[in-house]
Amino acid sequence: MESLKESLMGVVSRIRSSVLLDSREVDLVIRELQRALLKADVDVGLVLSVSERIKKRFFEEEQPPGFSKKEVLVKILYEELVNLLGGEETPELKVSSTPFKVMFVGLEGSGKTTTVAKVANYYKRKGYRVGVVAADTYRPGAYEQLRSLAEKVGVPFYGDPQERDAVSLALRGVKVLSDKGIQMILIDTAGRHKDEEALMEEVKTLYREVKPDAVVLVVDATQGSAVARQARAFQEAMPFGYVIVAKMDGSAKGGGALSAVASSKARVIFIGTGEKIEDLEEFNPKKFVARLLGMPDLEALLQRFSEFARLEKERARAIASGKITLLDLKEQLEGLRKMGPLSKIAEMMGLQVKVSEEDLNIDKWINIMNSMTMEELLNPEIIDSSRMRRIARGSGVSPRDVKQLLEAYRNMKKVMRQLSRSRMRGLPRGF
Ligand SMILES: Nc1nc2c(ncn2[C@@H]2O[C@H](COP(=O)(O)OP(=O)(O)O)[C@@H](O)[C@H]2O)c(=O)[nH]1
Ligand SMILES: [Mg+2]
């Protein structure tokens, strides 16, 4: 994955060095992203749809106050890559019944037998009693390979080098191990047969007879987007919910394999990152993409976005409940400001009023409110004297000015309340 990481870091630094992020610069960013994904063997169709979505979102979504265009683009890039590689949820293989039978399927050489040992090790470390069954009766040496791996992990093993019938062997294995009180039984199966049809036939029969609680497909990351075809073939034979992508270490095509799996219904639960039994990592798309982008400050940025979303929700609630906030006052005043000085407005209305002092007040108030946090604008009640001093310092006025603004806000609230009350009494609108 190192090469994908390198090229995605290039995409991020292109965003950072952009000046305007106009459509020409965004196109350059997108093109660089496309190159990076195609090099990682991500399917062309997926590359195109992800680039379209990023562009569309960037030009359509509102830029929230306090965030730069670059930050917005980085966030969209992050979210769309998370989506491409598996989305929000991190599924888990839960041992929900005893014995919990897990059947491993996948083509020969994908890393299945090694992965069975890795998963056994993982759950053993979590405190489960795990056992493994060698039901690959086709490949010579499969028995010995799993037997020695099980010994290394230190878990019970069932196999029979003389048995040719995978189904009866698996059934016996399940019986023997569950009699021993094993909670989780991992069944390794063949990945090759006389031909693909015979292999799928055996896998189907195993599924029907053994009735596993979960099926895990193991695919090889070095195959890139080609794993999509394997996934489809196995999906036709039986429903599998989980995928493990082995050999992610050193594979330049890992991104292609992950996105191919993500576009099917199955979820990647682990990735294999080496030949040793410890080389298994839980797969979490969010963490994975964060690592790929190589931005130490990404976490903080995402947190700011989610904080903003939280406050937006709070604001929507305030509006729904009819609560008037300082933010409303601020927006009213800013709207007024856009129309020009008050004296000008008065002039347009044919009035001869001298309001220049009011103009100064409006500017001062907007300035003060610019020094407040969103939290304070939405809940002015929380502004105590120490917050008042901080706001005054931030806007270069005296705390008395801040106090005056808060008083004006309270008066406005009172008037609004009275207005709505008199309206409820049936007075004509406007009273
Ligand atoms: N580098 C690397 N090699 C792996 C990984 N998983 C499996 N292998 C190697 O891939 C080869 C095939 O693995 P095996 O478990 O026998 O595959 P099977 O035929 O699907 O059972 C072996 O040489 C393994 O050591 C992995 O995550 N990283
Ligand atoms: Mg094997």
TrEMBL record:
Localisation per UniProt entry: Cytoplasm
GO cellular component terms listed in the entry, alphabetical order: signal recognition particle
Catalytic activity, reaction form: GTP + H2O = GDP + phosphate + H(+)
Record comment regarding domains: Composed of three domains: the N-terminal N domain, which is responsible for interactions with the ribosome, the central G domain, which binds GTP, and the C-terminal M domain, which binds the RNA and the signal sequence of the RNC.
Subunit structure: Part of the signal recognition particle protein translocation system, which is composed of SRP and FtsY. Archaeal SRP consists of a 7S RNA molecule of 300 nucleotides and two protein subunits: SRP54 and SRP19.
Gene3D superfamilies, per the entry: P-loop containing nucleotide triphosphate hydrolases, Signal recognition particle SRP54, nucleotide-binding domain, Signal recognition particle, SRP54 subunit, M-domain
InterPro entries found in the cross-reference section: AAA+_ATPase, P-loop_NTPase, Signal_recog_part_SRP54_M_sf, Signal_recog_particl_SRP54_hlx, Signal_recog_particle_SRP54_M, SRP/SRP_N, SRP54, SRP54_GTPase_dom
Protein name, entry field: Signal recognition particle 54 kDa protein
Domain Signal recognition particle SRP54 helical bundle as annotated: residue spans: 1-85
Residues that coordinate or bind GTP: 106-113, 188-192, 246-249
Protein's GO biological process: SRP-dependent cotranslational protein targeting to membrane
